[in-house]
Design brief:
mainly alpha, Four Helix Bundle (Hemerythrin (Met), subunit A), 7 helices
Length: 195
């Protein structure tokens, strides 16, 4: 089952592609964009830590945008490489840690935040390991990385606009869906490897 975000990504590729082509023509490397995404994620983390949640959200969006563009720039500029893939995957994990662990500064339980980080990383690990074994994992599970970033964005938005309590309820839902995705991916890989 292909996730909703995977389908949306395929549709918005038409929007990202012209921007990626422009950046490629300007000789902006995909690896630079990947690094920029990490820098924005670090700034996001520190802005949340400093209780500048609105500014934090802005940098979260910038970071996520870099993540959406870097691979397309590499493809358009024909600079896809093992190094780029390694950087992208590794820095994505660091960004995931920053995105979610910043919730501690909103007053969320550090234990629950640590579990959420662990679950998120486990989802990514299962995909990476499965794909290293030749299994396709895109679209497996109800909350892929893109959806998790959207959840982080909405949780922060609700924290500002509504209340901490409402954002906390959404965080609990985020944790539940993340745990379900771990189970879904584990089961999918287990089933495929047993055949």
């Amino acid at each position: 089952m292909v996730s909703m975000l995977t389908r949306i990504r395929r549709q918005i590729k038409r929007v990202i592609e012209p921007l990626a082509k422009t950046l490629a023509q300007l000789k902006v490397s995909a690896n630079f964009i990947t690094m920029l995404g990490l820098i924005f994620a670090i700034v996001y983390y520190f802005e949340i830590m400093r209780s500048n949640t609105t500014l934090g959200i802005i940098f979260l969006v910038f970071s996520a945008l870099m993540d959406a563009i870097d691979g397309e720039v590499a493809r358009v500029s024909k600079t896809v490489s093992p190094l780029g893939s390694f950087l992208d995957s590794t820095l994505d994990r660091i960004e995931d840690i920053l995105y979610i662990s910043a919730f501690i500064f909103l007053g969320f339980s550090s234990y629950l935040v640590a579990i959420a980080v662990g679950l998120s990383l486990t989802i990514s690990y299962i995909r990476a390991k499965a794909e290293s074994l030749g299994l396709k994992m895109e679209g497996r599970g109800i909350i892929e990385r893109g959806e998790r970033i959207i959840f982080v964005f909405v949780i922060l938005l609700l924290y500002i606009i509504v209340s901490k309590q409402v954002s906390l309820y959404l965080f609990y839902l985020f944790m539940l869906l993340t745990a379900i995705t771990v189970i879904q991916r584990f089961y999918a890989v287990y089933s495929l490897l047993r055949k």
